[in-house]
Write a structure and sequence with these properties.
By secondary structure, the chain is an alpha/beta fold. It has one domain: Alpha-Beta Barrel (TIM Barrel). The protein is about 40% helix and about 15% strand. It is built from eleven helices and ten strands. An eight-stranded parallel sheet has the order 2-1-10-7-6-5-4-3. The protein has a two-stranded antiparallel sheet with strand order 8-9. Helix 9 packs across helix 11.
């Protein structure tokens, strides 16, 4: 199944636009696990077990594993997700951005070593930094477009000579000539709903990965109004709304998995209610 088909299937099956980001920080682990990097896979697997019927995707952030020499735990975690939730796609958040043979190796790492279903990329070296990943035609690629951090405006909101903003150009390219596999998507931050709406206007059929709700302060209802578009009761353009810390660290006690489930239910339901209220 191609990534976009996986995503649509998971969204329908779990009635969810929620993605849970897996950003494990051992310093915030509960109880006896606190500070123990050897429990990264265990902690994340417990979150997966508690939430996999509530989400449309999981998004592990590779830096949180690599910083603790835990790439082998990331492999085990992704294998665990494939066992317990084979219908839920995994978006590997790595934000790679290189060309040629180096990009080919990054693609092999994501799609052969970790067997991720999609990957985040930086597009700012142009199409030849995207092309090597298209050799895996069933895999999703989310290009950074208008990110949730304030400093993103330093480049992404700059105006080009023809009047277009940089993030608008990225959206237009991703929706057009660059989308040779039909599997491209865009990363847009929940903290900028007006920009989400503009990206959606330029890329009406691309999936949007939207970080920034929860701990970063993005509003779920504004995010859905800006990014979700329905057509005849079916999703025309999926949105994948990510929450990480608000779910992972809902409790620092032994009940952390149950608390994570409760936080995920609240986030999923808020998104669904906003969708029901949208045209």
């Amino acid at each position: 199944m191609r990534f976009t088909e996986q995503l649509a299937h998971a969204e329908r099956r779990n009635a969810s636009m929620l993605c849970v980001g897996l950003d494990p920080d051992p310093a915030r682990f509960p109880g006896a696990w606190q500070g123990d990097a050897s429990r990264i896979a265990d902690f994340c697997a417990a979150i997966v077990d508690a939430t996999h019927d509530l989400v449309c995707a999981f998004k592990p952030q590779i830096a949180y594993f690599a910083a603790h020499r835990a790439e082998d735990q990331l492999e085990r975690l992704l294998a665990h997700i494939r066992r317990v939730a084979p219908e839920v796609p995994v978006i590997l958040d790595a934000k790679r951005g290189d060309i040629g043979a180096t990009a080919e190796q990054y693609a092999r790492e994501a799609f052969e070593r970790y067997r991720a279903d999609a990957l985040t990329l930086s597009p700012f070296m142009g199409f030849d930094s995207i092309e090597p990943y298209l050799r895996w035609p069933d895999k999703g690629l989310f290009l950074l477009c208008r990110t949730s951090n304030a400093g993103g405006a330093d480049l992404q909101a700059q105006r080009l000579a023809d009047g277009e903003l940089v993030f608008e150009r990225v959206a237009r390219l991703a929706a057009g000539d660059w989308n040779r596999s039909g599997q491209l998507g865009l990363v847009v931050g929940a903290t900028y709903p007006q920009e989400i709406a503009r990206v959606r206007e330029l890329a009406p059929t691309l999936p949007l990965l939207i970080p920034g709700i929860g701990a970063q302060g993005g509003d779920a209802a504004a995010t859905v109004r800006a990014g979700w578009r329905g057509q005849g009761g079916a999703t025309r353009a999926p949105i994948v709304v990510n929450s990480s810390r608000a779910v992972l660290y809902a409790s620092r006690e032994a009940d952390f998995a149950a608390a994570a489930r409760a936080a995920a239910i609240a986030a999923r339901d808020a998104l669904q209610q906003a969708r029901a209220a949208s045209p």
